[in-house]
């Protein structure tokens, strides 16, 4: 059974949230982003980002998301995996700008540990 993965794909102030199966390829993600941003697929590169938002490695179009290291534990709905994208014809580096800081999660929405007997 394939796992559903969740991604936040970012460039400048654009943040696109996507979900995909672990068997889909990087090219499939690029097609999704292109459908939303209307950027050319062939002009786009997707990059894996670290915790600080720095790009670490380019993702190859034919690789599956599982082969890129994404699993249901590091690409969850409540904590999507971060990807950066750049337009090859326009930019030399992946550039991402913060849009805002989200408000804190209300106490009623936080998960609490199950009581132990």
From TrEMBL:
Alphabetical GO CC annotations of the entry are: elongin complex; VCB complex
Mind telling me which SUPFAM superfamilies this protein's record contains? Ubiquitin-like
Q: Which PANTHER family match?
A: ELONGIN B (PTHR13248:SF4), TRANSCRIPTION ELONGATION FACTOR B POLYPEPTIDE 2 (PTHR13248)
Name-wise, this protein is: Ubiquitin-like domain-containing protein
One GO BP annotation here? transcription elongation by RNA polymerase II
Gene3D superfamilies with a match to the protein in the record? Phosphatidylinositol 3-kinase Catalytic Subunit, Chain A, domain 1 (3.10.20.90)
